[in-house]
Each structure stands twice: as C-alpha cells, then as structure tokens.
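Annotated sample (chain length 132).
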Amino acid sequence: MAFTEYLISMAFAVFTAAAFILAGIALVRNADMEINDTFGYRTQRSTQNKETWHFANVHSGKILIIGGVIGLALIILTALIMEMMGVDKMAWLVGVILELVIVFTVIPINIASTENQLKKRFGDKEESNDKG
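Output written by the structure step:
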C-alpha cells in the first residue's frame, strides 16, 4: 500500500513539474500575442505596452521551463535514492513535499526575477496600460 501511495504522490509531483514546463513553452511560443486578460504573464508593469508584454512572457516562460526541468530532475533523483535505500514508510510524503517545493520556489522566483528584469530593462515606471 505504501508503494502505491508513493507512486501516486510522485506522479502528482511529476505532473506539477511537467505543467510548469508546458506553461513555460506556451508563454515563450505565444509571447507575440496581443495583451489580454486571459493568458500570459500579467502584471501592471508587464502590460504597459507590447514590448514589455513580449519581454515578460519570454522571460517568465524560460524560468518556468528551467524550474520544471530542475523539479523533474529532483523528483527522479529522489526516487532513485529512495529506491536504493529501500525507504517505504511515509514515502508518499516525499512526493507531496517535492511538489510543494517546486510550486513554492519556482513561482516566487519567477515573479521576482521577471519584475526585476522588467525594471532593469524598461525602468521603474508602473504607469497606465497601453494595451496596443
């Protein structure tokens, strides 16, 4: 039973990492889309104009891809280590912890880095949005 729970929790962690990778690819590939309220990296700073919008989506997408790949590598490495050590008690918790680590590190790093890069590249202005 513990092994099944472990596999399920690790599958959710893999799904989370894969979702970050796919979201990152979608942002990078669709960075030229019109500024919208549905899809993309949307902050006051990123929606100022098309140039900030494009830059923010590409930058954010790259971080999501990198974060997802690192998360996937951590999941695989952890699974291999646990298999070699023969750990089975509370093994499901490892998948849950990895999933939480991925989410609660990649998202804040993504936001902080993208906003910082927008400031560096376009200045510290957070003015009205020119959505066109």
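Annotation: The mean pLDDT is 86.
Annotation: The first helix runs from residue 2 to 29.
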